[in-house]
Amino acid sequence: MKEKLFSPNTRLWAIRHAKEFKSFRKYILCPRDFQIAMQVYRLKDIACFYPFDSEDAAITFNEMRERIRKKETLFVPFEKKDTGIYQFLIGEGKPFVLILPGGGYEDVCALIEGYSTAREFNRLGYNAFIGLYSVKKNALYPSPLEDVAKMLEYIFKNRERLHVSIDNYALCGFSAGGHLAASFCVKDIGYNRYSLERANTLMIAYGHTSFLYEKKSRTVRNFLGRKWKDRFLREKFSVEKHIDKAFPKTFLWQCKNDKVVSIKNSLALANSLKKNECMYEYIQIDGDAHGLGLGKGTAIEGWVEKAIKLWEK
User: Are the CB atoms for 99 and 122 separated by under 8 Å?
Assistant: First the structure.
């Protein structure tokens, strides 16, 4: 009997336990440890919590399953526990983007911000990877940055086998993942510390790029641990404090009244980019939503294409 395709009515449990996803089922949905709810909720029910396109997600999950059936390696686990990389490849020697979903350094929300975003980059002619980085008690600096370095080292080392170009690569981060992506573009704590090339372009969606505005942010607490109140450390990991003329081209956007991450994050970063005469584009839209991902059906829909135009300049 022909197996049913995933749809918006599919239970989350059925997606998590699809045989094709066995090797990475622990991470495929978020929150990853909320298994009881997965038996009850359907894919479309996620829209009760996030501005989520369940139709697009179902199509993406079906494509992921088909990739695996064609013997593609979709997920590569790394040696460090609970880290790895998803591969959405089109080959052809095309450049790549490394996507870092958000989650407050408590989870990696690839369901909301990873899979469909990677598929969109593929559609537009680019290879895409999604990074699974250290979270919760393992998220203390410098662990997540080390994870990004490992991801890039893996891609660089295997570029011929993967048929990707490593020239002019891009980083794309959402929320806490935006902080991680932007931090990796800071020379002293990011790429140069790991003897890696700087990204050509940085793309940030509602990024928690500063540690100076949310006093009790879980992102800050998870990243800095017991020292989360330390003013020096908060400034050290506030990206806007470390912009110079060599910073990558940057595309960033956020809702004006974002109810999770203050708009001050994006404004501070945009002002610093402007002050240092960096190439950037900043879009602010009305509303208070956070976790929009691709932003289907909203004022920001199509932002990936706009970001790519900046990347290609």
Answer: no
